[in-house]
Amino acid sequence: MTTTRIYYHEACLQHDAGAWHPERPDRVEHAWRHLQTTGLLQQLCVMTPTPAPLESIVTSHSQRLIDDIQQAAERGVEAMVDPDTVITPATWLAARLASGGAIAACDAVLDQGGNAFCLHRPPGHHAEFDRAMGFCYFNHVAIAARHLLDHHGLERVAIVDWDVHHGNGTQHTFDEDPRVLFCSIHQSPHYPGTGAATETGVGAGAGSTLNVPLMAGQTDDDYLRVTEQILRPAIEAFQPQFILISAGFDAHEADPLGEMEISTAGFRKLSDKVLSIAQQQCEGRCVSMLEGGYDLDATSRSIAAHLESLLAARG
Q1: Of 31, 101, 268, 307, which is the most buried if we count CB atoms within 10 A?
Q2: Are 171 and 195 in contact (CB under 8 A)?
Q3: What is the DSSP string of 158-194?
Q4: What is the pTM of this model?
Q5: Pick from 132, 157, 126, 131: which is nearest to 291 by CA?
Q6: pLDDT 10s digits, 158-202
Q7: For residue 30, what is the domain's CATH number?
């Protein structure tokens, strides 16, 4: 039996934009307690990440953005990037730890087998090459994909993003890269306003972006049908050597920032479907990482359901 790893560092709780902010420390703290009280944590291999090296972050972000975030954090006062995105003194370390965990999880899965989930914050999939936005500073899934391609020499990596918001930063990172298939199921119209079905990649990357924008109110069955009928054939044709998941849980029916109707059980089934594709295509090599999810109970229960799926798929 191989291992399901969970990457977590309590320093991620120090990044705090204020009690008013939806992306608050309670999101991860509540989920961690839930995993402890349910006994699920005892079935996982708990790993402590280290900060991502700057040479890994610069593969997906400009030096100017990196310097701006570091310098703002080191000044010791809050800096407003936009109305939703605040750099605090703890942001620099928390964001680097999140990216570092994503990298370490990929290394472990490639070297030792199994799968992994990164329970981290802040999230990452909105972060653009030269811009922090949408609660995101560094794009952890993009940095992990670059690591798989450049450090490990993989030729094909698939990213599945089921956050209720489109992963604009991830898409734009790989718009012109045919080595990465980016697949997104998201609510539309909704923030950040990208992710039309007509956005399919640019130049050499034409055809390597698959957006499935959905109107509000979609249910478990709708998401599962899209995954089976649209995502599965595209991923199978691509034949990835590794699958990364931007696992946002804000499409949950209880989430305050989305208008979708996925249940906790629906997230388990959605996880099962994507992991079955990973089993078929790349010997189960899969790393998922937390993106959105803003109702504390719903997000905690959905994370647990997702981890149960990872545990079931590991052997």
Answers
A1: 101
A2: yes
A3: EEEE-SSS--HHHHHHTTT-TTEEEEEEEESS-TT--
A4: 0.98
A5: 126
A6: 999 999 999 999 999 999 999 999 999 999 999 999 999 999 999
A7: 3.40.800.20
Structure-token match 């990929």, residue found: 106
Query: What is the predicted pLDDT for the residue at 260?
Result: 98
Counting the structural domains of the chain, the total is 1
One-letter amino acid identity for 293?
Answer: G
Distance of alpha carbon 219 from alpha carbon 221, whole angstroms: 5
Closest CA to 135 of 121, 149, 148: 121
Q: Quote the CA–CA distance of 103 and 211 in Å, as a whole number.
A: 25
Residue 32 belongs to domain spanning = 4-313
**What SS3 class is residue 153?**
coil
Catalytic residues: 126
Instruction: Find, among 137, 116, 110, the residue nearest to 126 by Cα.
Output: 137
Q: Shortest CA distance to 102 belongs to which of 5, 238, 25?
A: 5
For residues 263 and 220, give the distance between their C-alpha atoms in angstroms, rounded to a whole number. Answer: 7
By three-state DSSP, how is residue 201 classified?
coil
DSSP 1-23: ---EEEE--GGGGT----TT-SS
Q: How would residue 76 be classed by pLDDT, with cut points 50, 70 and 90?
A: confident
Q: Between the CA of residue 301 and those of 39, 106, 270, 282, what are the distances in Å? A: 13, 25, 14, 28
Q: Cα–Cα distances in Å, from 39 out to 48, 107, 231? A: 19, 27, 33
Q: Alpha helix locations (H) across 188-282?
A: 220-226, 232-238, 264-282
Question: What distance in Å separates the CA atoms of residue 3 and residue 1, rounded to the nearest whole number?
Answer: 7
User: Which residues are registered as beta bridge partners of 285?
Assistant: none
CA angle 86, 92, 98 (to 5 degrees): 100
